[in-house]
Amino acid sequence: xxxxxxxxxxxxxxxxxxxxxxxxxxxxxxxxxxxxxxxxxxxxxxxxxxxxxxxxxxxxxxxxxxxxxxxxxxxxxxxxxxxxxxxxxxxxxxxxxxxxxxxxxxxxxxxxxxxxxxxxxxxxxxxxxxxxxxxxxxxxxxxxxxxxxx
Length: 150
Fold this sequence. Notes:
With 150 residues, the protein is an all-alpha fold. It has a domain at 10-31 and 69-143. 72% of the residues lie in helices and 0% in strands. It contains five helices and no strands. It has helices at 10-38, 49-54, 56-86, 90-111, 126-145. The longest helix is centred in the middle third of the chain and has 31 residues, at 56-86. The two termini are 32 Å apart. It comes from Serpula lacrymans var. lacrymans (strain S7.3). The chain crosses the membrane at residues 6-26, 125-143. This is Membrane-associated proteins in eicosanoid and glutathione metabolism. Its main location: membrane.
C-alpha cells in the first residue's frame, strides 16, 4: 500500500481550486441572464455584428460571453499550477489562486459595462500577476521534486 502525505495546509489548496467553480458558476448565470435579455437563441455562441449594432443587450451578451470564455481558457492553467505549487507551498499557492479568483470579479463586471477596456481597469493587473506567480511557483516546485537544485 502506498501512502501520499500532503503538507499541512494543503486543504487550503483544495478550497482555492474549488473557488474557481464558484466564479465560473456566477459567470454562467450572467451569460444566461444576458442571453435572455438579448434574445440570442441557442446554439448561437455570440451575437452577430448586425445584432450588436441593433441592440445594446446583444453587445452586453457578447462581452459577458467573452469574459466567461476567457475564464474557461485559463482555469486549467490556474488549477494545475495551484495544485503543483501547493505540494511544497500550500499557503502561497492557495493565496495566489484565491487572489486570481477575486480578480475575476472586477474583470467580469468591467467587461459587462459594454466597454471591454474596463475589464482591466479595476484591479486588472492582479489576475495576470497571480497567474505568473503560480507558473513560477509550480515550475520551482516541479524542479525541486525531480531533484534539481533551485
